[in-house]
Design brief:
Helices cover about 15% and strands about 25% of the residues. The chain is of the alpha+beta class. The protein has a single domain, classed as Alpha-Beta Plaits, CATH 3.30.70.
Amino acid sequence: MREFKDFEVYLVHVDEEKCVGCGECVRICQGDVFEISEKALPARPENCLGCQACLAVCETKAIILTEI
């Protein structure tokens, strides 16, 4: 995983068409960013640590993390 600087801020987006609702992002996220309804939702994007663990476990590549 990539190490990020403390001052960087990230926008978390989930492509609903790619997300299958497996919950792996919820399980792995140390920032508690995601919730699952039928699909993953970035419910608390301000908690994103930028560690990219969610990107690593998302088999459908539905999560997009953008530095802002």
